[in-house]
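re: ur question from yesterday

yeah so i grabbed the chain u mentioned. its 295 aa long if i counted rite. heres the sequnce exactly as i have it in my notes:
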Amino acid sequence: KFTNLALQPVITPELVQGRVHLKCTYSCPSSKPPLRYVVVWSRLSSPGKKEQIQRDTTLQSFSYVEMNGVNLKLGDTVFCTVTAFTRDTPEQQSLPEESKGFYAGIKFLPESLEIAEDGKEHVLTIQSTVPFACPGHDDSCKITLQLSTEDLDSQLLGPPDIALSACQVDLLRAPCSESGCAAAALTVTAVTDFAQDGNRISRIRAEPVGWKDLLWRAYTPKDVKVTVRDLPTGNCYSFTDPHIITFDGWRYDNYKIGTFLLCQSASRAFEVHVRQWDCGGHRSAAACNCGVAAR
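ran it thru and got these structure tokens back, copy pasting raw so excuse formatting
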């Protein structure tokens, strides 16, 4: 009987005659007579369950399966399992060795985000793990993704909880490597809404646009879950004639007429101006807010 042959199967993506294929390669130990290999392709049909989609018997050190959009689609996690035997004793086979799962499609890295309302930008990388073919071998071949956000706590009214640096990204075709076949990046920032509304959950969705072939037309990548942690925000006030309360609780009055800088951020380009006008009586001088501008 065979011992463990350390076949170490690995799945990589390839374009074969303009079509997307997955290739299972494995080590071929020298043997007389030559070894034959049974390669079983399967995909994850539900958590913990696999569905066989193809079975090959070959003398080669590799096996292909086509992603045709029917038996094997974008969004599938694919495995190949390899067993070796000799032609003379096919009943004696090596222990089956399974590859790591290969996710075929578009991935977001990280797959989920936990951010806070602190103004910080968080980089989100979008990666295609499979190549894409364009007619005419165009060097500018790309996939355009339309991005959108959705607040899952829809019962709460107000502005969106997250902001993206772009509404569309282009994945430009490049030679496939361990880091994928195409990639792009954008930034995600939690919106500081100055409201004590608790932690909220949003999602980012990406949809390929402009592609007509079956493989990409019927595909929507997995959403990215974004948890936004609510942070307490400071408040300052200017009211009546006018009394002013600062962010740190100091109180004072300003009865002068004119335009004044009420608030200015030390960390970003943000400031608030107020305009005060005479609204006093004969007995005492007073001014009231008559205008406000923020930038």
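noticed a couple things. The radius of gyration is 30 Å. also The chain has a mean pLDDT of 89.
anyway ttyl
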